[in-house]
Amino acid sequence: MKIGDLAHRTGVSRRLLRYYEEQGLLRPVRLPNGYREYAEGDVAAVHHIRAMLAAGLPTAVIARLLPCVHDDGGRMVPTACPGMLGNLRRERRRIAETIERLQTSQRALDIMLAAVRPEA
What we know:
The chain contains five helices and four strands. The chain is mostly helical. Strands 1-2 form a two-stranded antiparallel sheet. The chain has a two-stranded antiparallel ribbon with strand order 3-4. The longest helix has 32 residues.
């Protein structure tokens, strides 16, 4: 299928699909005319990519984990691949640390807001 077909079936823009290719997440076949030809499995791959992005994973990590997931009745199911658990734990720690920093910033802003007197 062509890039427009994949975009239509996944709800992801052509531009974003090209970005996924640049990041090594999708590997369409290049036809002699330069067009990209996507396989049926790329539809599921795009859905998996979107799910992992929504979980906060960077594309470099997704590239390592993408071969370790499959569909089971329209649901993404991870399988135990070497390094998967370590990658997921590391990313969860990174996200937890980011949340903690943001909560600290939020508390500091709350203190500043509480100290500001309303303008007359």
